[in-house]
Structures are given as structure tokens and as C-alpha cells.
Design brief:
- This is Helicase Helix-turn-helix domain-containing protein.
- The protein has three domains: about 1-75, no CATH class; about 90-210, no CATH class; about 220-310, no CATH class.
- Helix content is about 55%, strand content about 5%.
- It has 16 helices and four strands.
- The strands form two sheets. A two-stranded antiparallel ribbon has the order 1-2.
Length: about 325
């Protein structure tokens, strides 16, 4: 775990709490904006079960050893991590949820091939078992097996081999998964490669795409509603009235959506004269909040932060 956490720090000061929240998938505006600044949005929810105590122990040890250095605004790394974060991973994959279903589904198919109904499931989780039972009832077994064979053949060899280590079937138990940090990342990369394939070609592997269930919603239903209203041209007051939420909540929903790439017309949020004032700042430093606030009199936090987000992403319209 040590090297995984070190990989989230670089030569720009980073608050430890922000890194922890990113890894476990807390999608607050402050966490996501910091991730945007450090080009780390991809890693939202990478380690959802990471205990805060374990994280804090790593930070303390890394600081003692000199791998991390304390500054007024956060920590910086003095060296590169020895591990590479999984390139195929995306926050919408829901790897933790899918992994249990996948291994149980493979086990169920294997045991059914030998007409065996008496076996110990690889996971005791009731919700996972219920999902797989429902999936299995709608299944054409030979087709699912053929799809799985094709799916493994389409994966990079390291990913396929890694997944095979965890398989359990009739009179077969894989060699098991190592618990080292590098092995944990290899597991995530393997499942990420598999889910990327299902996402790209669900029609080729319909049984397994159904087991997955498609992309996991990153944002809440209320957040999605706020973005839908904004896309229709509603302003913040109108969105607040429609959702019956605090203005601060509306602001956060819109800004978080923008961080994840949501598009909506800006004329509902910036009067023409103010928009031109922000246009004049587009070539400056988009990270200097106080400077931007002073440069555009009458602007508020939402307007400045949205400008920063869109400018950092190269999406501010001139």
C-alpha cells in the first residue's frame, strides 16, 4: 500500500486528506478539484476499502523516511513511486462490485457443467449471490461459456492470466491472488481491461455485460437532475427552486458535474459583460482564485471556480 499512496503525490503540495478521499471515492468538490489540478481524476475510488488508519500510517512512515516532505499547503514526494497505477481503470467500472459476481458466476457455470448443485460459493455475500442467481436464470449456458472464452482471448495476456489466478470451479482452484500492493494493482488492471472490453463491445459478450450491469453512475440522481436543468438553460435560482436544495448544494452539483465533463450553456451563469471580463483572464493563471476574484468585480465563488475548471480543461468558450 505504501508505494500506491506515494504514487498520488508529486512535486506540487498535496493535502493528505484530499488524496485519501480520492482513493476511497468521496466525490466532494474540494477533493475533485484537487484531483483535477493534479491530473488524477481517473483514480476516484481506486481503493474504496482503504482504512483511514492504514493511510495515515503510510503518510507518517513516508514522512519519517523522507519520501514525503511537509509544506505549508501540503506534502510533496521526493521520489517517484516504484509502482504504476492501473492505466485501464475508470471510476465508473465498479470493480469491487463486479469482481465478486464474476468469480461466483464462473464457479456456477463450472459446477453446472458437471451437474453439481452442492458446492460452497466463493463469496458469502448475500447480495452478490442473489445477483448471480438472477443472472443465471436468464442464461444460455453454452453461450455464456463461449463468450467467456472469447473474452479471455481478447484480453492482454497479463490480464487474462491474472484473472485466472482467482478462478474457482469444479475440482479446480486457482493458485490464488497475492496481497502485495503490486499484486493489488495488477488485479485492478486485469478487471479494468475486462470491463473496458465489456463497455466497448457489450453486444459481443451480452451475458457478461449483463452480469456487470453497465457503467456505474458516478454522480447522484440529484446531481444529474441539476445538470439536466442547466443543460436546458436554467440558471442557479431556477435550479434551486426545482430541486428544493440550498444554493451551496446547487453550486456544488454544477461544479462537480463540470469537473466530470458535463456541458451546459454559460449565459445563464455569466452576464455578457462579466463573461467578457473572464475571457480577458483566460491567458492568465487559472489556479489563482484570489487574483481572479479581484479581477472580475462582482463575481462569486461559483463563477470563478467554474471558470477555473473549464479553463484547466481547455473548455472555456471565447
Amino acid at each position: 500500500m505504501f508505494e500506491i499512496i506515494i504514487a498520488l503525490f508529486d512535486n506540487r503540495p498535496r493535502r493528505p486528506a484530499s488524496v485519501y478521499n480520492l482513493l476511497v471515492g468521496k466525490k466532494t468538490l474540494s477533493t475533485l478539484y484537487a484531483a483535477l489540478l493534479h491530473d488524477q481524476l481517473q483514480w476516484v475510488g481506486l481503493l474504496p476499502d482503504l482504512a483511514r488508519s492504514e493511510f495515515d500510517d503510510v503518510i507518517a512512515a513516508a514522512t519519517r523516511q523522507g519520501d514525503l516532505v511537509t509544506h505549508q499547503t501540503g506534502l510533496t514526494a521526493t521520489r517517484a513511486s516504484t509502482v504504476t497505477l492501473p492505466a485501464s481503470y475508470q471510476p465508473w467500472m465498479d470493480i469491487d462490485g463486479f469482481a465478486g459476481r464474476f468469480y461466483l458466476a464462473v464457479q456456477s457455470l463450472s459446477e453446472a457443467s458437471f451437474s453439481n448443485r452442492q458446492y460452497r460459493p466463493v463469496t458469502p455475500d448475500w447480495a452478490t449471490q442473489a445477483w448471480v442467481r438472477q443472472w443465471y436464470r436468464q442464461l444460455a449456458q453454452p453461450q455464456a461459456i463461449a463468450e467467456l472464452t472469447a473474452l479471455f482471448a481478447a484480453l492482454p495476456a497479463p490480464a487474462a492470466n491474472r484473472l485466472a489466478l482467482g478462478l474457482v470451479g469444479h475440482d479446480y482452484v486457482g493458485s490464488g491472488l497475492s496481497l502485495t500492493p503490486a499484486a493489488r494493482l495488477a488485479d485492478i488492471e486485469a478487471f479494468s481491461a475486462l470491463l473496458a472490453r465489456l463497455d466497448a463491445e457489450p453486444q459481443r459478450y451480452p451475458s457478461w455485460a449483463q452480469l456487470w450491469g453497465g457503467r456505474h453512475a458516478i454522480l447522484s440522481a440529484t446531481n444529474a437532475q441539476a445538470l439536466a436543468l442547466a443543460a436546458q438553460g436554467a440558471n442557479r435560482v431556477q435550479i434551486q427552486a426545482a430541486l428544493r436544495r440550498k444554493m451551496s448544494t446547487v453550486n456544488e452539483h454544477l461544479l462537480v458535474g463540470a469537473i466530470f465533463g458535463a456541458e451546459f450553456p454559460l449565459d445563464a451563469f455569466y452576464p455578457p459583460a462579466q463573461k467578457r471580463q473572464f475571457d480577458a483572464q483566460a491567458l492568465g493563471d487559472p489556479e489563482d482564485y484570489q487574483q481572479l476574484l479581484a479581477a472580475v468585480p462582482g463575481s462569486d465563488f461559483f463563477q470563478v471556480r467554474l471558470f477555473q475548471i473549464l479553463t484547466l480543461q481547455g473548455r472555456w468558450p471565447q
